[in-house]
Sequence to fold (362 residues):
Amino acid sequence: MLHQTGALELCQSIDDAGARARAEWFLGFVACDLGNLSVSEELVNRALRTARAISDRWCVAAALSTRAKQAMLRGDLAEVERSGAQSLEMFSALGDRWGQLQSTEWLGALARIRGDYQRATGLHRDGLRMAEELGLWPQAADQLSWLGRIAMHLGDYAQARDLHERAMRLAARHSYTPGETFAEFGLGLLARREGRLDAAEAHLRSVLERSRPFGAMPGVGVTLSLVELGFVAEQRGDATGAQTLHLDGLAASRKLGDLRAMALALEGLAGARALAGYHGQAARLLGMADAARRSAGAPLPPAEQGDIDRITAMVRPTVGEEAFASEFAVGANLDPHDALGWMSPPPRGPRSRRRVRRSSHP
Fold:
């Protein structure tokens, strides 16, 4: 594991400012993939300051592309757009296709989040082409997975499965474990949406174990796997298991500081509470989730509202339109970072025979 003190001391021992900045960027680039986000941010910020001071345009562009990735992990979409666009412009001027590939990945991910699937597809196809031409097979695998996500959101499940399976095979062939994990997570998402809950659980359990963080900070893979497993439990009728998993996912997303991940966990909790018979609380949680997404600048596109539509259909007819709107409005004014003490008592809904095992908190 890369520790902050050791990394900074190592870089500070380099006398040449340009070499030091590039070393700080590289260690920050690596730390981001190792799950040590705070170390990565400190190193990259230091590199960026120095690179700007000495007019090292390549290092500035590289630091900005890594900052865009960090911002995506934190859920700061405005920073993803700002740093990603600046980085892409600079790398394009420099004629550096490796750098363009770094930047287009996060700009493509941002376009997908915003529901602009045409732009996202174009950016990721460009990224795939550049990765294949440069022989960067791990990054080609990631681009295939991104394209698979888009196909899933567009309802083309056959293509989505093919793209994710290709990505997983390519990543495995090049011993690229993060790429295998990313592709398998996509297969888990797809399986749940197709109603193949056993397959979804198997994929998501595998991703969860692979994504365990190296330090105290939970990674995005851990957070999203917990929440997706919570949805699996809810769809099996296990209110208790679903609530446990979603609370774990919410705690992890709060540590990460990602409002979009918090919103997803709150939506999952709404489903668990509705399943347990607490429909007013479920409506309130949906309001909290909606406000969190809007605060993050990322309301869900229509193609990605399947879980919310399913949960809302459980809640609204039971409580009535007026009560639903009232509780939703109350939730919209609550801070998603706050405790959920008002959510007790514990769930008492039906439980399936085949429960999703309780997940330990990372």
Notes: The CA atoms of residues 253 and 319 lie 29 Å apart. Residues 349-362 have pLDDT under 50 and may be disordered. The longest helix spans residues 57-74. DSSP finds 17 helices and no strands in the chain.
